[in-house]
Amino acid sequence: MIVPEPRRHRTRWPAAWSAAAILSLAAGAAATAGVSCCGGQPQADKDHLQRMMVRNGAAELRRQAGHARAEDDYQTAVERLRRYLDLHPDDHEAQEELLEVASLRALPTESRPLLEAQATLPGQFRTHETRRFIVLSDADPQWTRNQAERLERAYHQFQRFARRHGLSPLPLEHKLVCILFERYEDYQSFAAEHDAVADPWIAGYYAPQHDRIVFYNIESNPQLLRARSKLTDLEEELQSLNHKAAEAERNGDPHRADALRNHAAQYEAHMKNERLRVEAFARRVMVATTVHEAVHQLAFHTRIQSPYVHYPLWISEGLATAFETDTPGHAFGPDHEYEPRRETFEKMLAKDQIIPVATLARLSDLNGAPEWQVRAVYHQSYALFTWIDRFRAEELRHYLHGLRREPAGRQDPQRLLEIFTNAFGDPEQLERAWLRHERRGLE
Q1: What angle in degrees, to the nearest 10, is found between the helix axes of 339-350 and 371-391?
Q2: What does the pLDDT read at residue 69?
Q3: Contact residues for 277 (Cβ-Cβ < 8 A; gap 6+)
Q4: Measuring CA to CA, which residue among 295, 335, 287, 338 is closest to residue 315?
Q5: Angstrom distance (rounded) from CA 358 to CA 363
Q6: What count of other Cβ atoms lies within 10 Å of the Cβ of residue 263?
Q7: Which secondary structure element, helix H or strand E, spans residue 126, and what is its range?
Q8: Over residues 188-206, mean pLDDT
Q9: Among 3.40.30.160, 3.40.710.10, 3.40.50.300, 2.40.10.10, what is the CATH number of 27-47+108-221+282-442?
Q10: CA 50, 52, 53, 59 torsion: positive or negative?
Q11: How big is the chain by its Cα radius of gyration, in Å?
Q12: Which residue of 1, 279, 283, 388 has the lowest C-beta tally within 10 Å?
């Protein structure tokens, strides 16, 4: 708390502000990451699987996989087995065969998503490979390496979650593609032109139609630059206070000099606190968004979610938000809280701003929704998913497997509610149990 100097010598603070608050638009990236990409949901092709059946047939895909394996063409065998499992996701024998064959080959770098990305990017983009990701970047090399490490950490923690629930994640078909931009303006232009992402506040996104995740170095975020500029202005105010204190001392007014020095000390402490908040906030947005979008990409590649089924938002975004973290070096995921999400949800709960679970279970898009509803869906999906992960784990597994078996394309809202009810029981009873648990945590 700032204690003002005596009235007659008072130096006014600038207009009330918080440097971190200047980043409020960028905060949308952490609050609603992925909104512009249909919640990270690939555009489901209703006829894809049917066409594949007519063209190849499930039995033919298995035959081709066996022939490719006999010829030591392990990558073709992997591709055919993955296509077969898109048709028969519960064939455990085929899953085991895929795992075995995938272990016999190195994860390929070249892929359709990589070739598409390279064709749309300028020549100065460098390639950085990790064990499971290929990163195309024109950004700072150290930041690029940091991002690549976060992606690998997201993979590791996602696999830990999937194994814990017996979800049988499929091995990757190829290295996953990530694009990093140094400049915010270049990122924004690319997002609008190539991925139909027009929301300027999003710090990163998953583009399912091109199967890539895209980010920019948050150091170039306009709100961050504005916040730092504001802090620079405050430093000039601080210098002015110190100058006035020295002038008062020279003029023989020690009381005014002491008051000005005290005020300057408080001003400096305020600035230091604001600077720390700005930097911590910027890093938190970047790390949380990176992990969030990577989880979207991983969920569809491993077939924890089918790329052909349009999922309800709560499960897609609940899953992704549950992995958000600002400490990627430690374990993270649904069994670890992410405090920014938790705190916002608890404020919603205290104000009774909860969307009924039966409504959430049917909701598959937010087209035209007001901002408050978008934020509510994301924070509530986080809280609901993490609770179900901890207390309804078996039901969660049945729910994910049930959705994966649905016909390709968008599901009717009533059908989505039926799938939810079949897995978890009556939504109102589940809601009462969930909120009873959450409200105990507020006491």
Answers
A1: 110
A2: 96
A3: 18, 19, 20
A4: 295
A5: 9
A6: 23
A7: strand 126-129
A8: 87
A9: 3.40.30.160
A10: negative
A11: 26
A12: 1
Q: Which helix (H) or strand (E) holds 315?
A: helix 313-321
End-to-end CA distance of the chain: 28
Report DSSP letters for 400-437, one per residue. Answer: HHHHHTSPSEEPPHHHHHHHHHHHHS-HHHHHHHHHHH
Instruction: Confirm if 296 and 155 have CB atoms less than 8 A apart.
Output: no
Contacts of 155 (CB under 8 A, 6+ apart): 132, 133, 294, 298
Per the model's pLDDT, the better-predicted residue between 289 and 243 turns out to be 289
Q: Which among 200, 239, 209, 234 is positioned nearest to 29, based on CA atoms?
A: 200
Q: Nearest Cα to 437, choosing from 382, 369, 400, 391? A: 391
| Residues forming beta bridges with residue 212, ordered by sequence position | 177, 207
How far apart (Å, rounded) are the C-alpha atoms in residues 237 and 388?
51
What is d(CA 106, CA 18) in angstroms, rounded to the nearest whole number? 50
Model confidence over 46-84: pLDDT tens digits?
445 455 544 557 889 999 999 999 999 999 999 999 999
pLDDT of residue 176: 98
pLDDT above 70: percentage of residues in the chain: 87
Q: For the chain, which residues make up each domain, given as ranges?
A: 27-47+108-221+282-442, 57-102
User: In the structure encoding, which two tokens stand for residue 287, read together?
Assistant: 């790390």
Cα dihedral 219/224/228/234 (nearest 10): -170
Cα–Cα distance measured from residue 318 to residue 379, given in angstroms and rounded to the nearest whole number: 8
DSSP 173: S
